[in-house]
């Protein structure tokens, strides 16, 4: 699970606007938001930078680790 959609909407960006800003197709953003595409590290970094956040906040859910440790 990632928070790309959440951060994109908070920035009031459409999928197309985000895609154009980072140099990918709109469909790529859609696939990432729906957890159907594993983006490269470079793409993750571009997303995080454009959305004004870091990789941990965008792609890592601390609750998952807590559940695994229980």
From TrEMBL:
> Keyword DNA-binding: yes or no?
yes
* Residue span, HTH cro/C1-type domain: 4-58
Keywords for the protein's UniProt record, in alphabetical order = DNA-binding
Asked whether the UniProt record includes Transmembrane helix among its keywords, one would answer no
Spell out the molecular function terms from Gene Ontology: DNA binding
Superkingdom, taxonomy of origin: Bacteria
Q: What is this protein called?
A: Transcription regulator
Taxonomic lineage of the native organism: Bacteria, Bacillati, Bacillota, Bacilli, Lactobacillales
């Amino acid at each position: 699970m990632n928070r790309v959609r959440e951060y994109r909407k908070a920035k009031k960006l459409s999928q197309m606007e985000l895609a154009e800003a980072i140099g990918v197709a709109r469909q790529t953003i859609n696939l990432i938001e729906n957890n159907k595409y594993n983006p490269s590290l470079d793409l993750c970094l571009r997303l995080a930078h454009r959305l004004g956040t870091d990789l941990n906040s965008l792609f890592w859910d601390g609750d998952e680790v807590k559940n695994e440790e229980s």
